[in-house]
Amino acid sequence: MSAFDAREAPRPDRVAEAERLADAVAARLGEPVRLVVHDNRHTMVSFRRERGRIQFRVHHLFLGCPPEVVEALAGFVRPGRGDGRRTASRTIDAWVRDHRDRIAPPRTGRMQARGRVHDLQAILDRLNAEHFEGTVEVRIGWGRSGALPGRRSIRTGVYLHAARAIRIHPALDREEVPEFYVASVVFHEMLHQVVPPAERGGRRTIHGREFRRQERTFPDHARSQAWERENVHLLLASPRRR
Length: 242
Fold this sequence. Notes:
alpha/beta
């Protein structure tokens, strides 16, 4: 049995593929499986046991997968945490890596780069010319966020790999935040396109040795880190809403 988490009705061929996948996993496990196909970008595979059967959720990129991946999906569900579960996880991770192009990019919507104080597009264009020879192709804009009550840290920026977009926290768009600090955050996020995550031994490293080396080449790197340590309270204060 299968179902789809989607706003639009799935194509008949995808429904048939989902039914075949559900039947194949159930045959390997020897118990009933209800398979739900989704487009979630973060959790590719998950399951729980409910009402005498397995509720299994998989990303649509697993539709039509070969027998060894079907076996890995079944192995992921089987009880135990030994070598079988680890082997299954590695096979699943490899399939996801090889088919990332089937993962829908996040919706970024309209991005506003010009802020009340800082113009992110101007900063990005300058950094691109001075440090990356104009090779970074990315959109940039201010994020949407309210106050951060009780927080002791802040995610000042994020790079969206699939959308090739950068969002900067609006707490930085104020007169008290110097442009060199905003530029350091933008530079950091641009580096994520230049130095993508590395996959080694089944582990994904985002801020590896090469990333950190290039990050330190930013002229105001040390100065920006010192400013952040001394002014984190300012960044955590209620930012202007957008």
